[in-house]
UniProtKB/TrEMBL annotation:
This is Major facilitator superfamily transporter. The keyword Membrane applies. It is found in: Membrane. InterPro entries: MFS, MFS_dom, MFS_trans_sf. Residues 22-32, 58-71, 593-610 have a biased composition (Basic and acidic residues). Keywords: Membrane, Transmembrane, Transmembrane helix. It is a multi-pass membrane protein. GO terms for cellular component: plasma membrane. One of its GO terms (molecular function) is transmembrane transporter activity. It comes from Podospora appendiculata. The chain crosses the membrane at residues 95-121, 133-151, 163-185, 191-209, 221-243, 249-269, 290-308, 320-342, 363-387, 399-422, 429-448, 460-484.
Length: 618
């Protein structure tokens, strides 16, 4: 009887251990996150406890079952470490519909970064303004590159769905506004605000898509996103040419209204219930790093602005209008990193930093940032200057100039698909990035052989294939690196930063090309071609004399070659930066994903333990 009297207390200790194997993973998490309960279980473990009715023989029979139960509970913990928190899988049909809404958001935002490439000279002719016309493209690019990280952090506070719909609303509203503008200044202003919405669509798609994709399909997310970026970036000039030639340049912007509206509704009505959503820490407004976001925006805009503006004057680079914003931009960049270091020490990484330093301490991710910045430079530059070259040098229509980019479209999509498939299981991201740099470097180098002949050179189309293939490989691999090299807690800013630097590189490319063309135009065409004739290049080429026509083709070809030479220099730097992506003893893609879940679980357990200890102390 004495043994029976002592048993109830011991029985209470055994029952949770037996019950562990039947609980869900979330229940296991709760027991592990409570140090008091965890400690009691460990302390009681050496005692052999059996139900009060057991005799010695029964106890011996029960002991193996108890061990099995404990082992099963332990293996459940290990499974969670390996696979991360389990949640129901979204039904395939619903996932496809949701992915369609997300994909069109990303598609439209990227489309508008290039769709005006074949419409610029038509818009300039309509408004009778050639100087400043590139700001129609750059205004969108500047705000597009400025706000991705801010939108990512806002989504941590208000939720992914709400932030995405807000970005869609801004994008659609100012797209329609662009179509109704009556002068160039209004159009530039609306394009800038349209870019704010576009940046949200861009970064939030890169965040939401991987979060809702089943784990076994995540290695292919980079390829899918890369294909969307590729198709949108290259299809933009083609679609812009069709609308400009057969309708009006205003439809380039009005198109976003109905298409974007339908995509937003599809996204809204297919957004999953809470049980299908991944669990991530909810942020508060007070945790958002608004100062860091402001400094990041200021640095991006102020560094790009002077290079674009320098095309207005051949001697601009020595003037205050060039030097002042450039220096302010560099100072903003230094201030940003100083603030991030202070913020990390002050709040120990709990604040939603604009640029989490934990990401930059990972040499693979840091090298990817630099590589992506350099790879974005020649890609977006090519998307803009090739249609313009086909129109001005080769005398083609906006539609035909856009169609000439089809080889680049196909090869970019192919490169994105290859990048995803090559890294579906084994980690070949370093090799993928290196090959991407080599392809783009080869393509840009070969493009320097272009001539000023009126006839289109077929070889230029073939060289575009190398540029597209390289960018496709780069886009898919950089997206995958952002997924697998970032802590789960910082996945949103990790994707947003990659998106931001890619666009920053492209904006610098457009600005550099604009500056080069502006300098060459003013030095070689002053007194040869009037301002009115320059403003009407897109629609009044036939009014030029043969001598003027030859002079213009020569200037544009020289500027084109110089653009490609600069692209080669930037891509050489990209190749050097890609060496930082190499890592010895690389884990496979599934192993890397398991490591992310394990680290996140350990972080949460440490945080919860500290919280319990603090409460006990109080």
């Amino acid at each position: 009887m004495a043994a029976v009297v002592e048993q109830p207390n011991r029985d209470r200790l055994v029952q949770p251990a037996l019950h562990v194997s039947q609980e869900t993973r979330s229940d296991i998490d709760i027991s592990h996150r409570n140090p008091k309960m965890h400690g009691n279980a460990i302390a009681a473990e050496p005692e052999k406890a059996f139900p009060p009715t057991m005799d010695g023989a029964d106890a011996e029979k029960a002991a193996p079952h108890e061990q099995d139960a404990r082992h099963l509970g332990s293996s459940t913990d290990e499974q969670e470490d390996e696979q991360g928190p389990s949640s129901p899988t979204l039904p395939r049909a619903r996932f496809l519909m949701l992915g369609t809404g997300l994909g069109f958001g990303l598609f439209l935002s990227m489309l508008d970064s290039s769709i005006v490439a074949t419409s610029l000279y038509t818009i300039a002719a309509d408004f009778k303004e050639i100087h400043g016309i590139n700001w129609v493209a750059l205004a969108y690019s500047l705000t597009y590159l400025s706000c991705p990280v801010l939108f990512a952090r806002i989504s941590d506070v208000v939720g992914r769905k709400e932030a995405f719909l807000a970005a869609f609303a801004i994008f659609i509203a100012f797209s329609l506004g662009c179509g109704f503008c009556q002068n160039l200044q209004q159009l530039i202003a609306c394009r800038a605000l349209q870019g704010v919405g576009g940046s949200g669509l861009y970064s939030l798609t890169m965040i939401i898509f991987p979060e809702l994709t089943p784990d076994h399909q995540k290695p292919y997310v980079g390829g899918i996103i890369g294909i969307v970026l590729a198709v949108a970036g290259v299809l933009g000039p083609i679609l812009g040419g069709i609308l400009t030639e057969y309708a009006s340049w205003r439809w380039v912007f009005w198109l976003n209204g109905p298409v974007g509206g339908v995509a937003a509704l599809v996204f809204l009505f297919t957004w999953p219930e809470q049980k299908y959503l991944p669990v991530h820490d909810k942020r508060k407004w007070a945790e958002v790093d608004f100062l860091g976001s402001f400094l990041l925006i200021a640095a991006a805009v102020l560094i790009v602005f002077p290079f674009q503006n320098s095309s207005a004057d051949v001697n601009e680079w020595s003037k205050a209008i060039f030097l002042a914003p450039l220096l302010l931009g560099i100072l903003s960049l230094f201030a940003l990193f100083a603030w991030q270091f202070y913020s990390e020490r002050r709040w120990h990484g709990e604040r939603a930093a604009a640029i989490p330093l934990v990401l930059l301490r990972n040499h693979v991710y840091a090298a990817t940032i630099l590589n992506t910045l350099c790879m974005g430079f020649p890609y977006l530059l090519s998307v803009y200057i090739f249609p313009n070259r086909f129109q001005v040098v080769n005398g083609q229509s906006p539609l035909y100039a856009g169609v000439m980019l089809l080889p680049m479209l196909g090869s970019t999509a192919l490169g994105s698909a290859i990048g995803g498939l090559a890294n579906g299981n084994k980690n070949r991201l370093f090799e993928t990035v290196v090959v991407a740099c080599i392809f783009m470097l080869l393509g840009c180098g070969l493009e320097t052989t272009a001539s000023s002949d009126l006839a289109i050179e077929p070889k230029l189309m073939g060289f575009l294939v190398f540029i597209g293939l390289g960018f496709g490989l780069s886009a898919s691999s950089s997206t995958m690196i952002a997924i697998f090299e970032s802590p789960i807690r910082e996945h949103a800013p990790a994707q947003a930063i990659i998106a931001q630097v890619r666009t920053l590189g492209g904006s610098l490319g457009i600005a550099a090309s604009s500056a080069i063309l502006g300098v060459r135009t003013r030095s070689a065409l002053t007194g040869v071609v009037t301002e009115a004739q320059l403003a009407g290049l897109g629609s009044k080429v036939s009014n030029l004399s043969p001598e003027q026509w030859t002079a213009i083709r020569t200037v544009y070809t020289d500027a084109f070659r110089e653009d490609m030479i600069i692209c080669c220099a930037v891509l050489t730097l990209a190749l050097v930066c890609s060496m930082g992506i190499y890592r010895r003893n690389r884990p496979s893609i599934p192993e890397q994903e398991q490591n992310r879940y394990r680290e996140e679980r350990q972080r949460k357990e440490t945080r919860d333990s500290e919280t319990v200890l603090a409460e006990d102390t109080v």
